[in-house]
Amino acid sequence: MPLTERVRIAVAALMHATGESQARVAEALGVTQGQVSRRQSGTAAWSLDDCDALAAHYGIDVLDLLAGPTRACDALPDDRHARTAARTRKGTR
What we know:
- The longest helix is centred in the N-terminal third of the chain and has 16 residues, at 3-18.
- It is built from 7 helices and no strands.
- By secondary structure, the chain is an all-alpha fold.
C-alpha cells in the first residue's frame, strides 16, 4: 500500500476512534475543513508537516501514524478513545 494511502486510512481510523470530525482535525492543524476533506479523499496529499502535527494532536509517534491504521490506533492513548473519553467526562470508568 502506498504511504499516502496508509496515512489517509490511519487518519480516518484515528478520527473514528476518537470521534473527531474533519472540522476538529482541521482546527487542530490550523487548516480548513475543506483542506482536510481533500487530503482524506486523496485529491491532495498529507505533507510531512501535517503528519508531525497529526501525530502530536493524537498523542502518538509519527512513525506509528506512518505505519498505518492498526498501529496508529494501538498507539492512541487510552484517554483519547471516544468511549474512554466519554466515560471519563461522565465520571465513570
